[in-house]
UniProtKB/TrEMBL annotation:
One of its GO terms (cellular component) is nucleus. InterPro entries: Mog1, Mog1/PsbP_a/b/a-sand. GO terms for biological process: heart contraction; protein import into nucleus; regulation of membrane depolarization. Belongs to the MOG1 family. Signal peptide: none annotated. One of its GO terms (molecular function) is small GTPase binding. Keywords: Protein transport, Transport. This is Ran guanine nucleotide release factor isoform X2.
Length: 126
């Protein structure tokens, strides 16, 4: 049997979000879920065709009663609650340096939370 060459790896790509307001670098194999089903206007949703993982970018409303790291955790847990997540896990919460913020004249601080939520797929039981 002749040897087959491995399939070339698909490169990452920059993808415009929210009509081009900003962009994200997506991993190989990421699919835009809005091409498959309706997605709310405040979300950009991507899924991976092989790993069954999803990436959701969501615009959130300011909650003045929480600030800093606690605001990141609040929103993560709030979204998980709305999605009826069975499990929530925060891996890390890190501040972004203000010099790296494109909107630094409008935003005093920004945080990145990395975590996992176990959520049932649409139309599936938990």
């Amino acid at each position: 049997m002749p040897a087959t060459s491995p399939r070339p790896m698909e490169p990452t790509r920059d993808y415009p979000l929210f009509g081009g307001a900003f962009s994200a670098t997506l991993p190989p194999g990421a699919l835009d879920v809005s091409d498959l089903r309706p997605v709310p206007d405040n979300q950009e949703v991507f899924c991976h065709r092989v790993t069954d993982q999803s990436l959701i970018v969501e615009l959130l409303e300011l909650q003045a009663h929480v600030q800093g790291e606690e605001a990141a955790r609040y929103h993560f847990e709030d979204v998980g609650g709305m999605q009826e997540a069975r499990a929530l896990q925060v891996d890390s919460v890190q501040p972004l340096l203000s010099e790296n913020l494109a909107l630094r004249s409008y935003c005093q601080e920004a945080w990145v939370l990395s975590g996992k939520q176990q959520v049932a797929k649409e139309n599936h039981q938990p």
